[in-house]
């Protein structure tokens, strides 16, 4: 007997299991240390967790405003005003969502119509392309390459045209851990203005930057204030990835439509977590600078350890990740083969960066998460001690 199951939505029905879930499952199956998926192995800031508990016990637990608690929307506007000089009206230019992915989905579905072209940069986060296609959009893919992963005029000139409706831009960039400098942002802004393009900016890693690298929101570049949708994430800012509290910031004409999409996705978000995030965003600069300092130390610990084992590490400028370019090692395997080998033979999980490409992938780069305790990183390094020598041609 035939059924209609064969005609289920192909955008999603034909998608494979994500590499994040596949490698995390392999880590569980092999009792491996998971340096693949991007989450810390500590519970997060205690005072913020206590604020959530207090709000749950003594606060309001019914449907909050669809747009988010007023106190959180004000806190978001104040926070971005302080850190980036970005002036936002909390009531007309800020919305709270159930995570950064929902924020991005709301933005994409608000902007993209059938036949619209959307510029995306590979390596590309896995949720972007299915949602663009569900909206009827056509992704136009740009290939970024190691070791610098930078933008240039030739690549933008090759994809921007009269059909371009939007560009989806991740900065700092996961997985390559690049924090884009002003000159790249100004170049992208020039093309957005020339072709009347809306920029959807995935900036969830905005506070996780290292050394002298500073995050510059694209919305603050001259000419971009009215054509940018900025997405942030409390989960990344406070290392509370399970809370799923996202931010959408945009000029009123853009935010109004994104809010209508949000209304029919999740509608609203847990009020106790919103209250705790509002508290967290008001913390002193010392908290955010200390968080970066701690992550920098973990980055450097894993970097030094991998380099001592012979891995060519590409310096991480931001995010929870660093990448290793295997190409100089002469290994007889791709990044995907390498990741499957080390999770099975060495009990350490990583992510092949080729999984972030749909076309013409870079196949020599592997991503490791360093947002872990010292003991976790040290044990992983011990296990990987022979992973290079054991596979040389």
UniProtKB/TrEMBL annotation:
Needed co-factor(s): pyridoxal 5'-phosphate
Residue ranges the record marks as coiled coil: none
Pfam family, one: Aminotran_1_2
A GO cellular component entry from the record: cytoplasm
Aminotransferase class I/classII large domain location: 32-384
The entry's keywords: Aminotransferase, Pyridoxal phosphate, Transferase
Single GO molecular function: pyridoxal phosphate binding
Superkingdom in the source lineage: Bacteria
The keyword Transferase is annotated on this UniProt entry: yes
Xref: InterPro entries: Aminotransferase_I/II_large (IPR004839), Kynurenine-oxoglutarate_AT (IPR051326), PyrdxlP-dep_Trfase (IPR015424), PyrdxlP-dep_Trfase_major (IPR015421), PyrdxlP-dep_Trfase_small (IPR015422)
Gene3D superfamilies named among the record's database cross-references: Aspartate Aminotransferase, domain 1 (3.90.1150.10), Type I PLP-dependent aspartate aminotransferase-like (Major domain) (3.40.640.10)
Alphabetical list of NCBIfam families matching this protein: PRK08912.1 (NF006488)
Family assignment from sequence similarity: Belongs to the class-I pyridoxal-phosphate-dependent aminotransferase family.
Protein name in UniProt: Aspartate/methionine/tyrosine aminotransferase
Lineage: Bacteria, Pseudomonadati, Pseudomonadota, Alphaproteobacteria, Hyphomicrobiales
């Amino acid at each position: 007997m035939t059924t209609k199951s064969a005609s289920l939505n192909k955008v999603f029905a034909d998608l494979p299991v994500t590499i994040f879930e596949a490698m995390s499952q392999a880590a569980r199956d092999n009792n491996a240390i998971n340096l693949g998926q991007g989450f810390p192995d500590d519970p997060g800031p205690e005072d913020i967790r206590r604020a959530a508990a207090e709000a749950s016990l003594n606060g309001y637990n019914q449907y909050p405003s669809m747009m988010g608690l007023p106190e959180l929307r004000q806190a978001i506007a104040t926070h971005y005003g302080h850190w980036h000089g970005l002036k936002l009206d909390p009531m007309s230019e800020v919305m709270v969502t159930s995570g950064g992915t929902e924020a991005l989905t709301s933005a994409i579905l608000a902007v993209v119509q059938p036949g619209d072209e959307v510029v995306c940069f590979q390596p590309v986060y896995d949720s972007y392309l299915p949602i663009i296609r569900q909206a009827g959009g056509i992704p136009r893919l740009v290939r970024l390459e190691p070791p610098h992963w930078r933008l240039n005029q030739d690549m933008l000139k090759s994809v921007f045209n009269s059909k371009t409706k939007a560009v989806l831009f991740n900065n700092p960039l996961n997985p390559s851990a690049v924090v884009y400098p002003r000159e790249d942002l100004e170049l992208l802004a020039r093309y957005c203005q020339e072709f009347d393009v809306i920029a959807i900016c995935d900036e969830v890693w905005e506070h996780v930057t290292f050394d002298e690298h500073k995050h510059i929101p694209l919305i603050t570049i001259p000419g971009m204030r009215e054509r940018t949708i900025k997405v942030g994430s409390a989960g990344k800012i406070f290392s509370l990835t399970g809370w799923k509290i996202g931010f959408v910031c945009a000029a009123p004409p853009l935010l109004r439509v994104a809010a209508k999409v949000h209304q029919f996705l999740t509608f609203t978000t847990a009020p106790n977590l919103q209250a705790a995030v509002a508290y967290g965003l008001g913390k002193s600069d010392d908290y955010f600078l200390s968080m970066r300092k701690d992550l920098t130390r973990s980055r450097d610990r894993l970097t030094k350890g991998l380099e001592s084992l012979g891995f060519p590490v590409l310096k991480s400028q931001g995010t929870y990740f660093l990448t290793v370019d295997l190409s100089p090692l002469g290994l007889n395997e791709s990044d995907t083969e390498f990741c499957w080998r080390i999770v099975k033979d060495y009990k350490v999980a990583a992510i092949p960066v080729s999984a972030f490409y749909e076309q013409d992938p870079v196949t020599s780069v592997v991503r490791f998460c360093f947002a872990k305790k010292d003991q976790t990183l040290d044990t992983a390094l011990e296990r990987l001690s022979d992973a290079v020598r054991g596979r040389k041609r």
